[in-house]
Design goal:
The chain folds into two domains: about 120 residues, Rossmann fold; about 80 residues, 3-Layer(aba) Sandwich (Rossmann fold), CATH 3.40.50.300. It is about 35% helix and about 25% strand. The chain is built from eight helices and nine strands. A hairpin with a 5-residue loop joins strand 8 and strand 9. Helix 5 crosses helix 6. The chain binds adenosine-5'-triphosphate. Adenosine-5'-triphosphate binds next to helix 1. Pfam families: ABC_tran. This is ABC transporter. Belongs to the ABC transporter superfamily.
């Protein structure tokens, strides 16, 4: 089942084109890993798909199976976000914001949903703690629970393991893998090539012609290039 199709997309800022000729498709249950050098346009691509940034050219087509509001997003964390003054429960619950529309309060059902996601990720005991007092790994679990409140279909994650130690990183990857096995579509920007072992597809952003392929074929053709870089 198709979710998103990208055709001849160009990304950029002001008069500068960062990357063009981007073509790929995301289908239900894919695990797409987006890789590329610093500045290749990975974060810009995610923001453009989410409409947080205007595209320069091309098409981003959403199928009837997916609304833009049904995407769960886990942004690259900034120092300011790490210091966010709210409780864990409040941060997770804010994942429901897109469903509030003009309603100024959360329903009991939405609150229960937030609690279920915290339970699923093993962070219920942290719910009344301040988000900024948590470790990096705990913060990422909170943000993942928040993204899961927004969507049970697809998650877009922008370098989610930056700054996490190797063990916490592997735990986080394990969480994503089990979500993917349960039917969740995963799209992840990563500098960590070890994550390719979980991926079904790879998008390699390069200035001239970005490459999109099934993972096995990609490793066969471009393994040397990316691992020797
Ligand atoms: N707000 C902005 N205004 C102007 N240029 C920007 C802006 N944000 C990013 N850029 C430029 O666009 C290019 C792509 O940036 P982007 O953050 O998408 O790359 P990336 O592949 O995610 O890099 P990294 O791996 O370092 O996170 C870079 O040259 C960057 O300097």
């Amino acid at each position: 089942m198709s979710y998103i199709k990208i055709e001849d997309l160009s990304l950029g800022y002001d008069s500068e084109i960062v990357c063009s000729n981007i073509n790929f498709e995301i289908n239900k249950n894919d695990y797409l890993c987006i890789i590329g050098e610093n500045g290749a346009g990975k974060s810009t691509l995610i923001k453009t798909i989410l409409d947080l940034k205007e595209k320069k050219a091309g098409k981003i087509l959403f199928s009837e199976n997916l609304k833009k509001s049904e995407i769960g997003y886990l942004p690259q964390q900034t120092v300011v976000q790490k210091d966010f003054p709210a409780t864990v429960y409040e941060v997770v619950l804010s994942g429901m914001l897109s469903q509030l529309k003009y309603r100024p309060f959360y329903t009991k059902k939405e609150k229960n949903h937030a609690k279920q996601e915290m339970e699923k990720l093993g962070i219920t005991h942290l719910q009344n703690k301040s988000y900024r007092q948590l470790s990096g790994g705990q913060q990422q679990r909170v943000l993942l629970a928040r993204a899961l409140c927004a969507s049970d279909k697809i998650l877009l994650l922008d370098e989610p393991v930056t700054g996490l130690d190797p063990q916490v990183t592997q735990e986080f990857y394990g969480l994503l893998k089990s979500l993917n096995e349960q039917g969740m579509t995963i799209v992840m920007v990563s500098h960590d090539l070890s994550v390719l072992k979980y991926a079904t597809h790879v998008l390699y952003l390069k200035k001239k012609v970005p490459i999109f392929m099934e993972k096995e074929m990609f490793i066969e053709r471009y393994g040397k290039e990316i691992y020797n870089d």
